[in-house]
Amino acid sequence: MDSLLHISTLHYLVLGAALFLLGVIGVLTRRNVVIILMSIELILNAVNLNLVAFSHYWQGLPARMGGGPGALHGQVFAIFVITDAAAEAAVGLGILIAFFRNKETVNMDEVNLLKW
Amino acid sequence: MTPVATPFFFYLLAGTMIIGGILVITRKNAVHSALALITTLLAQAGIYLMLYAPFVAGVQIILYAGGIMVLFLFVIMLINLERSQKERQFNKQWLVGIAAATALGGLFITVYTKGKALFPGSAASYVEEQNTQNIASLLFDRSQGMYMFSFEIASLLLLVAIIGAVVMAKKRI
Amino acid sequence: MQPLIDYITSYLSSDKTPGAAGNFFWATVYVLLVFAGLSVAVICMNWLERKILAHMQVRLGPMRVGPHGLLQPIADALKLLLKEDIIPSEADALVFWVAPFIVVLAAFTVFVVVPFGPTHAITDMNIGILFMLGVSSLSVLGIVTAGWASNSHYPLMGALRSSAQMVSYEVAMGLAVVSVILMTSLNAQGTGTLSMIGIVNAQMAQGEWFVFKFFPLGLIGFFIFAVAMVAETNRAPFDLPEAESELTAGFHTEYSGFRWSLFFLAEYSAMIAVSSIAVTLWLGGWLRPFPNWLSGSTWDLVFSLFPGLTFVFLAGMCFYNVARMPKHPLFKIQTMGLAGFGALLGLIGLALFVPAVRDRVGDIFWFAAKVAGFMYLYIWYRGTFPRYRFDQLMKMGWKVLLPMGLGLLILTATTAFLEPSVEDWLRRIL
What we know:
heterotrimer, A: mainly alpha, about 70% helix, about 0% strand
C-alpha cells in the first residue's frame, strides 16, 4: 500500500507503458485512418511521458553522475518529440486528404491501390 | 514549492489519461475520439507540471492541444465521415492485434517488475522558477548548450513538413 | 484552532503570491475574488457597450429598465436564464453541451497568472505568458466543436472561419510577445523571464514601459498586438464570423438561453484577458504613470488619490443626472435609485481616501484603469470601423502582421545587441 501511495518514477513509467499499449491496440485494430493517426499521437505522448519522468529522476541524481538541477536533457528531447509529432500529423493528414479525394473513403483496408 | 496531495492528483490525472485513451480507440465517432484525445493531452500537461516540467507542459498545451488537435478537427470536418460511421469499426485481424499488444504488455510487466529497485522516488524538491532558463541554457548557451544543431534540424523538418502538407492537399499541382 | 489561524494569517506577512507560497486557503480566496470581479466586469461591460455605442451613434441606448438603463444587464441575464433550452434534433447532444464549457474554461483559466499587483496574482508561474497564450488558444477548440455540433451549415461555416481567423492572428500575437520577452533580458544577469510579474518588474527596473522602449520598436510591437488581439477575440472590425447580417450569428446560431450567455461571458472574459496581456507586457502592469520621472513621496501621494477621486467623480455624475431627471411622479423610484447608486459610489470613493486602504489599492486600481481604457478602445472600434471581408482579414493576418512581427523581432534583437556598444561609442565621442 505504501508503494502505491508514495509516487515514484516507476508510477510514471507504468502510466507511459499503459498509454503506449492503448495506442498500439488502436493502431492495430481500427479501420478508420483518422483514429489510427490519433493512436499514433497517443504512442508519441507515452514516449514523451517516459522522457520527462526520467529527466525528473535525473534531476535528483548527484552532479557527478550527470544529474543536478540543470540536467533537463529529457525535457529538451520531449520538446523535440512534440515538434516532430506536429510535423508528422500535418503530413499524415495531408496524405489522408489526398487519398480521400481519390477514393471517397477513410477506411484503412481500402488503401490497396498498389496491390497485385 | 512543496507538493501537496501528490498521490491524489497523480491518480486523478492518470485515471483521466487512461479513460481518455480507451475512449480514443473505441469510439465510433471521430469527433468524440478527438475530444477524448484532447482530454488526455491536457491531463498529460498536468502530469508534466507534477514532474516539475512547466515549460514542456506549456508547449504541450500550445502545440498539441491547441495546434495538432485543431488540425485534426479541421480535417475531420472537411472529410465526410457519415458513411464510415455506419461501417464496421474494427478490422478483421483485431484478435492478432490484441494478442500482439498483450505480448508487448507482458514484456513491459516483466521489465518493470525485474527493475523495480532501480527507480526510487526522488526525495529532493526542485526549484521550478528557473526551468525555462535552464532549458534555454541547454539549447543556446555557449559553454554548456549542446542542442543547437538539433534545434536547427527541427526547424528544417518543420519547413519540409509545411511544404509537403501544402503540396499534397492542394487541388491541382 | 490556533494552527488554522496561524495558517491563515501567516500568508499576510509573506511577499509571494498564494500559489508560490503554497497557501491553499488564500489561493481559493483569490480565485473567488477574481471570479466575482470578472462577473461584475462583464456585467458593467454589457451596459457600457450599449450606452457608449448608442452615444456614438447619437441615440440614447437603454433608458427604461433602471435609471439610465442601469438595470438592463440584470434584466438580460434573467431573460437568458429563463429561456427555453433548445437543442437541434440532429445535433450531437454531448458535444453540443460540452462546447460552451470548453470556451468558458479557456477564457477563465487564463486569469490564474494575471498580475494585479506585485503579489496580487493567484500564482506566478515560471511560464506565465506562455500559459496565457496557450490556454487562450484552447478556445478555438470550443468554437470548432460548437459549430460542428449544431449540425447546420451556417454555424459550421462560421466556426471554421472564426477558428481560422483566431489561429492566424495567434501567430502575430506570439511574435509581438517574443519581442517583449527579448526586452526583459536587458538586465545585469542577461536572463529574461516569461513570468508576468517578472515582466512588470523588468519594466520597473529598466525605468520605462516597454511601449516606449527602443522607440519606435516597442510602439510597433504594441500596435501589432493591439490589432491581433481584436482579431483574436472576434470583435469588430474582425467580427465577420459572428456578424448577424452575414452569417446569422455564426457559430452560436443554434445556442439560446443559458448556453448563449456562456459564449457571451467567455467572449468578454477573453477580451479582458488579452487586454491584461497587453497592459502587463507593454503598459507597465500595475505601475502608476511616471514611476521614475515623477518619483518621491509627494507625487506618490498625488497619484494615490486617483482611485478615490475616480469614484467621487462617478458619484458626482450620478447626482448631476439625478438633478436632470424629469420631475414627474412616475420617475420617483428611478430618481431615488439613481441617487442611492450615486451615494454608494461616493461612499466607496470616500473609503478609498483612507490612508490604510489607499496604499494597498493603488496597484489594482492602475491595472484596472488601464484595462478599462482598452475596453473603451474595443467599444470605440466597434462603433467606428466597417467590417473586414474574410479574405481581407486573412490577408492582413498573414501578409501584413506576420512580416511586421518578424521584422520587429529582428530589429529588436539587433538593437538590444548593439545598444550597449552604441552607448559606449556615443559617450566616447561626445
